[in-house]
Amino acid sequence: MAVHEDSNPHKKKSSDALDEIPTFNVENMQNNTRVINYSRTFMSIIGGVIAGILGFTGLMGFIFYFLVMAITTVGLAAKTGFAVHSYFDSWNRIVLDGILGGLLSFVLFWTFAYDIVHIF
Amino acid sequence: MAEDLVLDTAIRDWVLIPLSVVMVLIGVLRYFVSKLIRSDQVPDIKIVKEGQVIIRARNLRAAANFIPAKSFRARRHYYSNEENGLLHVPKGQAQNPQAQMFSDPNMAMDMMKKNLSMIIPQTLTFAWVNFFFSGFVAAKIPFPLTQRFRAMLQNGIDLSTVDVSYVSSRSWYFLNLFGLRGLFSLILGEDNATDDAQRMMQMGGFGFDPTRSLGAEKDGLDIVQHDWALPKFEQRAVAVLKKLS
């Protein structure tokens, strides 16, 4: 879980007390979303390699992928200190964003590692 | 179909790994080449102006609740009144984006350069893969697929008895082409030139119509429900301070 970029010093200000009025900085939020996408891509590549080396096939690999994504979600949430709303506008961002986008990378690296280790 | 094929380890060493490495390197090369040949065109002053107006209007809309109703109304009037508001576009003045595109050769040139930097390496790599590596199985994907995927995954092999999960080298090339996008966004940064989907979007929005976005922004501004936030701020401050103590 070392991928949650720390280069993000100016995240959106906490809005706990201002629940009624959403105040957020668009640029910072885009930056946060980008960080999430990076983490997801990274995790999907690493997860693909791990799945390939461990030799998962079929459904098992996809289950592993979603497991990795769930772990990433938990890690990201932990990074925000479980105060997701002070960094993102909704939980969906942290839970769902980028999952399908990483799938193709995952499949590629899964296949690659699996072939190198197990097929030949 | 039942028994596994035995693949030669030479295929791994001389096809699978080199192909992937070459794809990555070509992606990197393409990124830097397209960076080199990109020309900084001087933006049209009218377009820049309109863009700035849109940004200002958007800021006003986002921060509408933090200014008094009167100020908000005044600003909205400034932007969207029907006579000389900044966002108001008189009818008939809207420029045809197509005509604009053809009147500016630089624009077309730039687009062509972008396209070329994308198409040429792809064609070359494809030809290279075709020439050297055609006609044999290079990899096996670790999950089963239905027969429909045969055309996609066993491009270049005309055997109907081979299990569908075996991938020909040409199809491995395509898998790489799409799957490496994530890797490129990691190693080259977000706005790398290899993002085909983004490129498509840019192309679609190429002849974009500034007057249309002005109109949309005007409509958005018109329907904003103004609700001044400051009167409630004292109570909020009290709540925050109470929480602290």
TrEMBL record, chain A:
InterPro entries: Emc6, EMC6-like. It is a multi-pass membrane protein. GO terms for biological process: autophagosome assembly; protein folding in endoplasmic reticulum. Belongs to the EMC6 family. One of its GO terms (cellular component) is EMC complex. The gene is LOC105178869. This is ER membrane protein complex subunit 6. It holds the Pfam family EMC6. It comes from Sesamum indicum (Oriental sesame). Keywords: Endoplasmic reticulum, Membrane, Transmembrane, Transmembrane helix. It is found in: Endoplasmic reticulum membrane. The chain crosses the membrane at residues 38-56, 62-82, 94-114.
TrEMBL record, chain B:
It is found in: Membrane. InterPro entries: EMC3 (IPR008568), EMC3/TMCO1 (IPR002809). Keywords: Membrane, Transmembrane, Transmembrane helix. Belongs to the EMC3 family. GO terms for cellular component: EMC complex. This is ER membrane protein complex subunit 3. It comes from the Eukaryota. Its main location: membrane. GO terms for biological process: protein folding in endoplasmic reticulum. The chain crosses the membrane at residues 14-33, 116-139. It is a multi-pass membrane protein.
